[in-house]
Amino acid sequence: MWGGTRYRWGVKLTILAISRLARSPETELVKLYAERATNAGRALGLGPCEVVEVEARKPGKAAEAEALRPHLSDAHVIACDEHGQARPSRAFAEEIARLRDYGVRRLVFVIGGADGLDPALLAQANGKLAFGPQTWPHALARAMLAEQVYRAVSILAGSPYHRD
Q1: pLDDT level of residue 35 (50, 70, 90 thresholds)
Q2: How much is the CA Rg of the chain, to the nearest whole Å?
Q3: DSSP assigned state of 22
Q4: Which domains are present in the chain?
Q5: Which of 2, 49, 100, 163 is the residue whose CA sits 20 to 30 A from 10?
Q6: Integer Cα distance of 69 and 64 in angstroms
């Protein structure tokens, strides 16, 4: 609760990624954490949390950006990029809460293809998020992002899930 009232859905959270994942343990983790974030975020004005996978018609970053762009209109975009800023989980949660409190209605986290995101799309993003200096497979990056979104929501809800 904030301001004495329950939130209605406030910020729609979207994990937007290039290519569709085959059925795998990572796919199940992404689905699980997105559902948990949706359920836990309801009272906080966060969610629903959805996962959107798109296919590019041609190979390459420019074609991938073309496939991603229709899903970015009217959204606050955070690009997942190796040159982005790694954030501790609490700082990530605070950023999501701050965006909600500023009135952001759609928050989209974008994961590019194997070669990353198109430079023009990166330049248009409102922020960049890194998962550290390691290189991660796309399936794991999605699972890690979904888990961090759920973790952020659980931190904001005061859940004991996160431990410092």
Answers
A1: very high
A2: 15
A3: P
A4: 11-156 (3.40.1280.10)
A5: 163
A6: 9
Copy the structure tokens of residue 106. Answer: 């759609």
Ranges of H-type helices in the chain: 25-41, 61-68, 89-101, 119-124, 138-156
Nearest to 142 by CA among 115, 112, 117: 112
pLDDT at residue 9, rounded to an integer: 57
Three-point CA angle 98, 100, 106, nearest 5° = 130
Q: Which two tokens stand for residue 126?
A: 């409102």
Residues 6+ positions from 9 with CB-CB distance below 8 Å = 42, 45, 47, 48
The SS3 call for residue 17 is strand
Number of Cβ within 10 Å of residue 162's Cβ equals 16
CA separation, residue 88 to residues 57, 110, 141, 160, 164 (Å): 36, 19, 16, 17, 10
From residue 24, give the alpha-carbon distance in Å to each of 17, 30, 37, 54. Answer: 16, 10, 20, 18
Per-residue pLDDT of 45-68, as tens digits, reads: 999 999 999 999 999 999 999 999
